[in-house]
Amino acid sequence: MKRTRFIKLDVTGGLPTEFVLFKAGDNRSTKGTISYDPSKAAQLQARYDAEDGRDLIPIDVAHLSLESPLPEAHKAIGWFRVDFAEDAIWARDVEWTEYGAEKLRNREFRFISPAFYADETGEFTSLINCAVTNIPATIDALPLVADRRDSAPKKITMSDTEHNDEAATALAELSPEEMQAALEQATAENESLKAKVAELEAALAAAQGTAEQASEQLHRFQKEALVSKLTRDGHMQPSLKAWAMKQTLDSLKDYETDALKAPHALSKKVNEKSVTADLEHDPIPSLRVPPKKTSPQA
Q: Among the residues of the chain, which ranges form H helices?
């Protein structure tokens, strides 16, 4: 079963280079209680080293890499090495990208959320990745670095999209100031996600524009190739190339089909002046117009 939990993160003392993902024993959260059995640390580490194959684990924004197919959503803002220790599961040797470091220094994100698998009993089994977020769900989690507004670690509990009785009880214990801070953080997270969505939409629009340009270039290349073939094979006068390029590709293909059926009729020399002056001599059958009618003589 795939789950996430949330850990308080702050950079008052500088960018964190390590932090605890799960302490040994039970880890309470609004997602349920997740347990880490330190007696299995060596087993978990060996299995990770043998099966996972990643030397470093990525940190993304709000777990978008697990939910969105867009390439922008899969960019990492940080990397770390996982360490299954006796006291906890640690993120070690944490490195932040310039984008990630800027977001942390600006306090746009203050929490870490590991995505992981747990069995039906709630015991941790494997790690997927981590994300920065502002919607924490961990209960009784110690902050990685003390908040500049905190003189000592305190209970951090905030609402998540999945509510349960345990979360409601924890929320009731918050002071009005803490509730206001939680609201401000949730609002900041919402604005940050809106900005990220806008960035992804812009990237998608740019990709679509590039695809349209590529399609137009391919269409022109196909017309050029077909016109060159028709002139080379004697089915069209070279002087008509510029005029033919203004026609549709389908019209040119129809002309080629007719040319192969009646090569002698279509390869007859056409007076360039009459072609440009009168569409009656249009070399493309689909664009021909009937000859002008004349009044009967009296």
A: 41-47, 98-105, 165-172, 176-232, 241-244, 249-261, 263-266, 272-277
Give the amino acid at 109: F
Residues in the chain, overall count: 298
CB 60 within 8 A of CB 74: yes
Crossing angle of the two packed helices 176-232 and 249-261, in degrees rounded to 10 = 30
Question: Strands 78-84, 57-61: parallel, antiparallel or unpaired by DSSP?
Answer: antiparallel
Burial, 295: exposed, middle or buried (Cβ in 10 Å; 0-12, 13-18, 19+)? exposed
Q: Position of tokens 């409601």?
A: 168
Beta pairing, strands 111-118 & 124-133: antiparallel
Question: Amino acid letter at 248?
Answer: T
Residue 265, pLDDT score: 44
- Residue 13, both tokens: 């003392």
Tokens of 38: 């330190």
The amino acid present at 296, given as its one-letter code, is P
Dist CA 59 CA 261 (whole Å): 64
pTM, 2 dp: 0.47
pLDDT, tens digit, 9 for 90 and up, residues 190-225: 777 788 788 888 888 888 888 888 888 888 888 888
Q: How far apart are the first and last CA of the chain?
A: 95
Judge whether 131 and 61 are in contact, CB under 8 Å.
yes
- Which residues in 107-149 belong to E strands, given as ranges? 111-118, 124-133
> Is 272 in contact with 281 (CB distance < 8 Å)?
no
Query: Which residue type sits at 15?
Result: L
User: Residue 98: how many CB atoms within 10 A of its CB?
Assistant: 8
Beta bridge pairs of residue 23: 88
CA distance 9 to 18: 11
